[in-house]
Amino acid sequence: MSALYDLFENPPSPDGERQPLHARIVSKGTVGKEEFLDRVHKFTGISRSLLAGAMEAFANEARDLLAGGWNVEMGNFGFFSTSLQCPPVKDKKEIRAMSVRMKNINFRASRPFKKEVGDKMRLQRGKSLTRPKKNSISRETCRTRLNTYLDNHLFISRTDYSHLTGRNKKVAIEELNSFVTDGMIRKEGVGKLTVYTKV
Predict the structure, then answer these.
(1) Which of 193, 105, 197, 112 minimizes the C-alpha distance to 153?
(2) Which 8-state DSSP code applies to residue 131?
(3) Residue 167 maps to a domain
(4) CA-to-CA distance for 77 and 113, rounded, in angstroms?
(5) For residues 35 and 55, what is the distance between their CA atoms, to the nearest angstrom?
(6) Residue 4: how many CA atoms within 13 Å on its side-chain side?
């Protein structure tokens, strides 16, 4: 499965000169915690409850270590650290402890992980879509968009279909199932891992 990208304009320079385009991933959406656990469970066979417990334990331990001023290396993923913020001053004596607080939690991917993602990534030119208003377009327009999408992709998920058409979850499932009944697409997988492919 390819990652989609598109080319975007950089803001013009102060003198109005156009800047070079830059490539950026066109997001397919977000894989939530539950779907992520389902995927890992399906491909490893490790108990889903065990995975959920381990994920919670990792998060709790990382939280406590970061709060204690440690950087945390999370397996092969990379490193978590915290950053601080305080009022702008020129003399250390002007700062009280109460005015210094956490700004953000930062993540820096490890070199091996970045290399693995880069080696595995297959890029395909796509177009960023403006999501339609919820349930605002006709069923036939949805059918056309779905056909076009499946001409360029191996499958579509319910989430991708919702993004493509503006359908809410319930309407998207009903519509996809009706297209299955019509013989236009076939349904594969179960639960949150369900995808739809062209017949």
Answers:
(1) 197
(2) P
(3) yes
(4) 6
(5) 13
(6) 13
- Which residues, at least 6 apart from 140, have a Cβ–Cβ distance to it below 8 Å? none
**Residue 35: inside a domain:** no
Cα distances from 54 to residues 41, 60, 76, 147, 180, in angstroms, run 12, 10, 16, 41, 38
Q: Flag whether 175 is in a domain.
A: yes
Whether residue 163 lies inside any domain: the answer is: yes
The CATH number of residue 175's host domain is: 1.10.10
| Distance of alpha carbon 128 from alpha carbon 139, whole angstroms | 22
- Report whether pLDDT(195) > 70: yes
- The model carries a pTM of 0.57
Domain count, the chain: 1
Structural domain of residue 188, as residue ranges? 129-198
- The total of other beta-carbon atoms located within 10 Å of residue 140's CB is 8
Backbone angles phi, psi at 116, to 5 degrees: -65, -45
Indicate if the pLDDT at residue 70 is higher than 90: yes
